[in-house]
Amino acid sequence: MKTTDLTDEQKAALRRDALFYVIPHFASNESLAHGPKIFVRGEGCYVYDLDGNKYFDSFATLLTTVCGHTRPEVTEAVHEQMQTLEFFPNYGDAFTVPLVELARKLAQVMPGELAVSFFVNSGSEANESALKMARQYHVACGQPHRYKVIARQGSYHATTLGGISVTGLPWFREYFEPLIPGGIFAPPARDHERPAGVSSAEYGAQCLRQLEELIRFESPETISAMIMDPLPGSNSGYPLPPEGYLAGVRRLCDQYGIILIFDEVQTGFGKTGKWFFCEHDGVTPDVMTIGKGFTGGFIPLGAAVTTARIAEVFRRGPGTEFRSGSTYGGHTVACAATLANLDLIEREGLVAHAAEMGGYFQERFAALRRKHAVINDVRGIGLLWAVVLDGKGVALGSRVSDWCYRQGMILRNNGEILVIAPSLIITRDEAEWVVELMDRAITAAIEEAAS
Ligand SMILES: Cc1ncc(COP(=O)(O)O)c(C=O)c1O
What we know:
The chain is an alpha/beta fold. 40% of the residues lie in helices and 16% in strands. It has 15 helices and 15 strands.
C-alpha cells in the first residue's frame, strides 16, 4: 500500500507503534513527547512526512545525502547490481567487481598515498578498524606495547565501546565506564578559542607543545595511534584548527612513530569545498576513515583507507593478515551505489559548487551576525556551518529549530549551536531561503522566549 493511501487511523497506529516497538538512535524523549516524525518520501534536498508536509533538510539527512535523495542514476546502479549479484562477502580470498572498482576509485580521489581500503558498514566501524589496524601494525613491527591512543577532547568518533573510549565528549561515555584502557586526550585546538592578541600560528604552536608534552608524559613507545577529526563535526560546531596545527601533528606522529588517523566520516566527499578537509592544509594521515556522504545515504558503507606501506605488513604471509571483518562489510550493492554516488559528485562538479556556496553562506551569516546580537559566533567552511547563539542564559537553539520545522525546514541544533550542512546540490535560491528563514526564526525565538 502507498503511504498516500493510508487512513488517519493507520497513520495514528504507525505513530503509536513507532513509540512502542522502536528504540531510536540517540533518542530524545523530550522531542518524542511531541510525537514521532515519520518520513515517507525524499527528492533532492527535500523530504516529506506521513501527512505530505514538505521539508527542506538543512542537515542532509544526518550529513549523508551529498547528492540529494532518490537520484535515478544511483537507483539504476542498485537495481542492476541487485539483478546481477546482490551480495557476496569480501571474506578471505573473495571480492566482487563493484568492490574492486570502488577501491580503485578511492585510490584516485584520496589524498597522498592513501590507496588501500578496508570496507565496513559505518563510520563507527571504520574508526574501530583504523584503531585495530594501528595496533596490529605495531605488533607486526615488533612493538606490541604500543596500545594507547591519543584522541581529542570534544571529538566524536563512534558509538561502539572502542569508539567511545576515544570520544572526547562525556555525554557519550558516562553510562559505559570503565571503557577500553589506553584512551588519552589532548586539548581540542580550536582556532576560535585562541586568546586575544595571539596569532593563529602562535596558538597552533602552543597546542602542539601541549600535545608533545602529553606524548612525552605518556611515553611515546606506548602510543599506537592518534585519532582526530581534522575539522571536528556538528557536535562542536566545526571549529577550524589553528594555522600549522595539522602539519605539526603530522610531524609529531612521524617523530614518535605514532600512526595518524584522520576521521573524515563527516567532512569527506566535498562538504568542505575539497574532497577531504585535510587537503586544505596539504596534510595526509596514515589512515583515513570515511562513511556518511561516501555512500550518499543510499546504502550503508564505510571504510578505513590506508597506505600501501601500512597494508604491506598484513600481506607478509600466513598469520600476518589484518584480523578484522564482518559479514556485510563492503556489501556488493552498497559498493555499486557508492560508485554511482561518487560519479555524480564528479560529473556535477559538486566539490567546486560546495566551495562556491561556502563563500555565499559565509557572507550571509556574517550579515546575520551583525543583525542579531544573540549570534555569538559563525564558523565553518564549504557546506558545513555552525551559527552559535548566546541568549545570555535564555535557551534559544531548540526554539529556532522548532520554529523552522513548523515552517518546513529541518534545522539541527546541538543546544545553542545551529548546524547548517545541506546536500551539495543546494541551489543559490535554496541557500537564500535557508538564511532568510533562520533570520526570521531567530527573531521569533527571541520573542517567544520573552513572552
Ligand atoms: C566525525 C564522525 N566520526 C564517526 C562517526 C560515526 O559514524 P556512524 O554513525 O556512521 O557510525 C560520526 C557520526 O556522526 C562522525 O560525525
